[in-house]
Here is the input.
Amino acid sequence: MGLAKTEIFTEQQNEIALIAKVFGHPARVAILQHLFKQDSCVCGDLVNVIGLAQPTISQHLKELKLLGLIKGNVEGTSVCYCIDTEAWTDMKGIMIKFLDQDLPDTECC
Amino acid sequence: MGLAKTEIFTEQQNEIALIAKVFGHPARVAILQHLFKQDSCVCGDLVNVIGLAQPTISQHLKELKLLGLIKGNVEGTSVCYCIDTEAWTDMKGIMIKFLDQDLPDTECC
DNA sequence: TTTATTCATCGTAATATTGCAATGAAACAA
DNA sequence: TTGTTTCATTGCAATATTACGATGAATAAA
Here is the structure.
């Protein structure tokens, strides 16, 4: 099938999964880390830094944009991409809340 | 292709992506949340709680086990699953380090 | 206008993921 | 032994993802 049954899960569970899915590819992790380092960035730069073909980078950027984590601004022939700080903070809150659940004192197995 | 070019990324980037990939399905998020709530759990329970067929749950549990986040212990005919607290803490450290990068003061776009 | 540059989109091939019915394997109960 | 229960595995169909060549659109430069 390849199709997740999202309707049987809570909105929160689906949201966590959607965020995680975007982080589930090393290229997108690398793009985000580069954007954090640079403050500002263009796609051509990323093609050199990451080492994937330009259409592939463009596709990964699209998914990051779709989730709202990055913003793109056209500047002449190039496009400037950067982290959407507000969206990143919101996302971080959701993910840390999930990661930070109370661990049981004793393990059963 | 459907095949990530892991060799061009750092070990850290691949590790973050591998972790995130496992969280990238709501069923696995739901399973983990249930294990946190229960302290102890068996798969049959999960099939009822989650609402997917038994083989599907079993497959998701396998991926969680493969990443090391949960442990399974055979108890008679049933299997007891629970969070591996040490592995969870390690994983949490890696993910929070990634999520907690310093945001730029000013956005360029 | 013509050409170059930069990035997005389209189309497609290769592979991965999701879900489940059918079936196995292991432990227990009768 | 013969069921019964519980979970894992196999096999398969439907869909998703990844990667990139080819091409398109927009702007800038000559």
